[in-house]
TrEMBL record:
It comes from Mucilaginibacter ximonensis. CDD domains: SSB_OBF. This is Single-stranded DNA-binding protein. It comes from the Bacteria. Keywords: DNA-binding. NCBIfam families: ssb (TIGR00621). The keyword DNA-binding applies. Residues 101-122 are annotated as: Disordered. The keyword Transmembrane does not apply. One of its GO terms (molecular function) is DNA binding.
């Protein structure tokens, strides 16, 4: 599955085990459509996780346009009130930075050794 959108806040890295880290970020996807002759816009927010390396977090900053590839899974939990809850998480396998903002750090900083899991376009 492929999603394209803007990162809404700088990515964070979380330790989940003594030797495992996950990079988390949220992407906003805008959809424009007409309804009853009126132009409308709808924004969907998608929580993403990236497990391959934490070195990419420094490039995944607020406002950056990205294209992510991966799959969705459900994440169930129980609220403080005892109510069953669930959310969707996008497990990211590959990230492509889009547009001129992908070059803002200059050079070739995106070689993370994870077999080209992060690409630049622009």
């Amino acid at each position: 599955m492929e999603l394209t959108g803007r990162i809404v806040a700088d990515a964070t890295v979380r330790n989940v085990a003594s030797d495992r880290k996950v990079t988390n970020f949220r992407v906003a996807i805008n959809r424009r459509y007409k309804s009853g002759g009126e132009q409308k816009e709808e924004t969907t927010y998608v929580d993403c996780s990236y497990w391959r390396t934490d070195k990419l977090a420094q490039y995944l900053t607020k406002g950056l346009l990205v294209q992510v590839y991966g799959h969705i899974s459900a994440r169930p939990w129980v609220s403080k009130d005892g109510e069953p809850m669930a959310s969707l998480n996008f497990h990211t396998n590959e990230i492509t930075l889009l547009g001129a903002s992908a070059h803002r750090n200059g050079g070739e900083p995106y070689n993370d050794g994870a077999k080209s899991t992060l690409k630049r376009q622009g």
